[in-house]
C-alpha cells in the first residue's frame, strides 16, 4: 500500500511525464493547428488502457477519463517498439471523428506490458468531401475522409511505409499529417522513457500498484464531491441551432440523478441519430469520456486539487439510448461531434446549476468555432489548407467575478495563433480581431465578451470551413437574474453593398477581395444586472465592453449621472426563474414544450433507427399548435403521407 505522501510523489512524476510528452509534441509538430492552436492530447495509461495521467499546461482537456482498452484489444502481438493507431470512430471508440488520429505504444518491463503511452493529434485534413474533412452537411462517415481501424503503424521501431503511402494518396496535405504523426510518436517515446524512470524508482510492482491507487484516489475525490451535493433529479435541455440542412433544432436532454456518492446522467429525450455530422459516437459506453467532459469541468471547479484520471468516471453512469444523437450506429456521420459536445457541456452545466446554484456559473458561449481556409497562395503558386484561428466566445458569469472575455471556460484550451504567423503561412489579411461590444450577458457578474475576427482573401474560389458554428439562434443562458448573451454571426463583406449574412451555415466560398467576419457568442450573465456596481458598469463603458445605450437599458446606469441612474434602477423588475434563455428559445418552447418532446421521443423510439430522423423532420414540418396533442396530429399526418412507415409500432406508441 502507498502512503499519501508517496502516492502524491508518484502522481507528480506521472503528471510531469505527461507534460514532457506534451512539450515534445508541441515543439516538433508541423501543422499550425497542433503547434499553435494545440488541438492534441497525450496521456499515460495503465496496462488495461485506462488513463492515469494527463498534462494540464498544453493541449486539449477533454480526455482524462479516456480508455483505450477496446482499441488496444483489436491489435495482436504487441512487441517493444510497436506503435498502433486508428482514426475510425466506429472501431474501438477511441477516435471520435476522422481527423483525430490516436496512437498508442506499449511499455514493457521484464517482458510484460505494464503501461501504455498514447495521445491524438487533430490532422488538418483527412480527405473526404470538403477541405479539412468536416462540415455539418455531411450525412455519412464515408464522406469524412479516409479511416484506419486499429492497426500497427510502427513495427518494432520501423514505420509501415504502405500505410503512410495510403495516407499520402488520400489527404490534401500529407506532409502536415505525417509530420504531426511522427511528432506524436516522438512524444510517445518520451513517455515510455519517463515510465521506465518511474519503474526504476518505485519498482515494477510498486508502479503498477501505485497507478491503481491513483485511480482509486480520483474516484474517492469525485465521490466526496457528489456527497456534498443534494440528492435529487435535475432535468435540463439545450439546443444546437440546426440538426442538419433541414434547419430544425437539435435537442439534448439530461436528467441528472444524484444519490449519495454516485450519479446517473440519463440522456433519454435527446434527439434521434441525425442525418448530419453532429452525432457523437459513444459506442454505448456508459462512461465514455465525450459524454463526461462537462462533468470533469464541474469536478475540477469544485476541487481544483482533484486527480485527473479514469477514476473520476467510476461514480457516474451515462444512459444514451442506441440510435440517438449521443449513441449513433454506423454509418452515421460524426465529424462535427465537437459542436454537439459543446452543447452537451452546456446541458451538464445547466443540470448542476440547479443542484448547486451557489457554486455554478452561467452558460459559456459554447461555440468554439475553428476556421479552416483552402486558398491559392499567389506568392508560391501553391494551394494552402490551414486552420486560421479558433473564434471562441466568452465564459459565463461566475459566482464571484465576470466571465472570461474571449475564452469560454469549456474551450479555453484552444490557443489563438498570432495573426503575424497566420499571415505568413496563409495568404489572408486580417482586418479585425478583438472583442465584440455588448456581447456578454448582463448580470451582477457580466458574461465574458465574444471574439470577433475578420479577414480578406485574395484568390478566387477560396473555401472557408467554420466548423462548430452555433449559437446564432439559441443564446447562452443567464442564471439567477442574469441575462442571456449575444448571438453568434458570420457575414461576408460586412458593411458593404455586397454584404451577405450566412445564418448558421458553416461553409463559404469567397472571391478576391472578399472579407469574412465571424463573431462568436458571449457568455451568459449571473445575478441581477441592476445590482452591479455603477463603477463597474462605467468601467465597462470606458473600456468599450458595454455601450452607453446598453448600460442604460441593461444595467440602469446613465454614465456620469447619479440621479438618473438612481431613478432608472428604482423602476427595475427582477427576472423570475433560475434561467434566462432569451426570446428565441422562449418562443420555440411555447410550441415545443417539454411534454411535446417527451411525446416525440416516445414515437421516434418505436421506429427503426433509419426512420427516426426522417420522421422527426416530417413531424416538425407538419407541427401546428403546441403540446403533445399537436405532436400526435403531426405524426398521424406523416403516417398518412408515408404508408411505408412501420405503422403498427408507431400506432402503439401514439396511443
Automatic annotation (TrEMBL):
The Hydantoinase B/oxoprolinase domain is annotated at 3-529
Highest taxon of the source?
Bacteria
Which Gene Ontology terms of cellular component type are present? cytosol
Tell me the InterPro entries matching this sequence: Hydantoinase_B, Oxoprolinase-like
Annotated GO molecular function terms are:
5-oxoprolinase (ATP-hydrolyzing) activity
> A GO BP term, please?
glutathione metabolic process
**Can you name this protein?**
Hydantoin utilization protein B
Q: Which organism is it from?
A: Paracoccus pantotrophus
Amino acid at each position: 500500500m502507498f502512503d499519501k505522501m508517496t502516492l502524491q510523489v508518484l502522481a507528480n512524476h506521472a503528471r510531469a511525464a505527461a507534460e514532457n510528452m506534451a512539450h515534445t509534441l508541441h515543439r516538433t509538430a508541423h501543422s499550425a493547428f497542433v503547434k499553435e492552436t494545440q488541438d492534441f492530447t497525450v496521456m499515460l495509461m495503465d496496462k488495461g488502457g485506462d488513463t492515469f495521467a494527463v498534462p494540464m499546461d498544453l493541449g486539449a482537456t477533454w480526455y482524462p477519463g479516456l480508455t483505450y482498452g477496446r482499441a488496444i484489444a483489436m491489435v495482436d502481438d504487441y512487441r517493444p517498439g510497436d506503435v498502433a493507431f486508428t482514426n475510425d470512430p466506429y472501431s474501438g471508440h477511441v477516435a471520435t471523428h476522422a481527423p483525430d488520429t490516436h496512437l498508442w505504444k506499449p511499455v514493457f518491463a521484464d517482458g510484460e506490458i505494464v503501461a501504455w503511452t498514447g495521445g491524438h493529434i487533430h490532422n488538418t485534413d483527412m480527405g473526404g468531401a470538403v477541405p479539412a474533412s468536416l462540415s455539418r452537411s455531411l450525412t455519412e462517415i464515408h464522406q469524412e475522409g479516409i479511416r484506419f481501424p486499429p492497426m500497427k503503424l510502427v513495427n518494432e521501431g520501423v514505420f509501415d511505409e504502405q500505410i503512410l503511402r495510403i495516407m499520402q494518396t488520400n489527404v490534401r496535405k500529407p506532409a502536415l499529417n505525417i509530420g504531426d504523426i511522427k511528432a506524436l510518436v516522438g512524444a510517445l517515446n518520451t513517455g515510455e522513457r519517463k515510465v521506465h524512470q518511474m519503474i526504476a524508482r518505485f519498482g515494477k510492482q510498486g508502479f503498477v500498484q501505485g497507478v491503481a491507487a491513483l485511480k482509486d484516489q480520483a474516484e474517492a475525490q469525485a465521490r466526496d464531491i457528489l456527497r456534498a451535493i443534494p440528492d435529487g433529479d435535475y432535468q435540463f435541455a439545450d439546443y444546437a441551432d440546426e440538426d442538419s440542412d433541414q434547419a430544425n433544432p437539435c435537442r439534448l436532454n439530461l436528467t441528472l440523478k444524484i444519490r449519495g456518492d454516485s450519479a446517473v446522467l440519463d440522456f433519454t429525450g435527446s434527439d434521434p441519430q441525425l442525418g448530419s455530422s453532429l452525432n457523437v459516437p459513444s459506442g454505448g459506453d456508459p462512461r465514455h469520456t465525450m459524454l463526461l467532459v462537462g462533468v470533469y469541468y464541474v469536478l475540477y471547479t469544485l476541487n481544483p486539487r482533484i486527480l485527473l484520471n479514469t477514476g473520476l468516471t467510476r461514480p457516474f453512469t451515462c444512459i444514451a439510448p442506441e440510435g440517438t444523437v449521443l449513441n449513433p450506429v454506423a454509418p452515421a456521420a460524426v465529424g462535427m461531434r465537437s459542436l454537439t459536445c459543446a452543447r452537451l457541456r452546456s446541458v451538464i452545466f445547466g443540470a448542476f446549476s440547479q443542484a448547486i446554484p451557489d457554486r455554478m456559473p452561467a452558460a459559456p458561449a459554447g461555440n468554439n468555432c475553428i476556421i479552416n481556409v483552402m486558398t491559392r497562395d499567389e506568392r508560391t503558386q501553391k494551394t494552402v489548407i490551414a486552420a486560421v484561428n479558433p473564434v471562441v466566445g466568452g465564459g459565463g458569469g461566475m459566482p464571484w467575478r465576470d466571465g472570461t472575455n474571449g475564452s469560454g471556460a469549456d474551450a479555453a484550451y484552444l490557443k489563438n495563433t498570432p495573426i503575424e504567423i497566420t499571415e505568413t503561412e496563409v495568404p489572408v489579411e486580417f482586418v479585425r480581431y478583438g472583442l465584440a461590444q455588448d456581447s456578454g450577458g448582463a448580470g451582477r457578474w457580466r458574461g465574458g465578451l465574444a471574439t470577433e475576427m475578420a479577414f480578406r482573401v485574395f484568390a478566387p474560389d477560396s473555401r472557408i470551413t467554420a466548423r462548430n458554428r452555433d449559437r446564432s439562434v439559441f443564446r447562452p443562458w443567464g442564471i439567477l437574474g442574469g441575462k442571456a448573451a449575444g448571438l453568434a454571426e458570420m457575414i461576408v463583406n460586412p458593411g458593404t453593398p455586397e454584404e451577405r449574412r450566412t445564418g448558421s451555415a458553416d461553409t463559404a466560398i469567397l472571391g478576391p477581395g472578399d472579407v469574412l467576419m465571424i463573431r462568436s457568442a458571449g457568455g451568459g450573465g449571473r445575478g441581477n444586472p441592476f445590482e452591479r456596481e455603477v463603477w463597474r458598469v462605467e468601467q465597462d463603458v470606458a473600456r468599450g465592453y458595454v455601450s452607453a445605450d446598453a448600460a442604460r437599458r441593461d444595467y440602469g446606469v446613465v454614465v456620469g449621472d447619479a440621479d438618473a441612474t438612481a431613478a432608472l434602477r428604482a423602476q427595475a423588475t427582477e427576472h423570475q426563474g433560475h434561467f434566462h434563455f432569451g426570446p428565441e428559445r422562449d418562443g420555440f418552447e411555447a410550441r415545443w414544450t417539454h411534454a411535446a418532446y417527451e411525446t416525440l421521443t416516445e414515437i421516434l423510439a418505436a421506429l427503426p433507427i433509419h426512420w427516426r430522423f426522417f420522421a422527426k423532420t416530417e413531424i416538425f414540418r407538419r407541427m401546428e399548435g403546441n403540446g403533445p396533442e399537436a405532436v400526435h396530429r403531426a405524426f398521424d399526418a406523416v403516417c398518412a403521407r408515408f404508408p411505408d412507415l412501420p405503422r403498427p409500432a408507431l400506432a402503439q406508441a401514439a396511443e
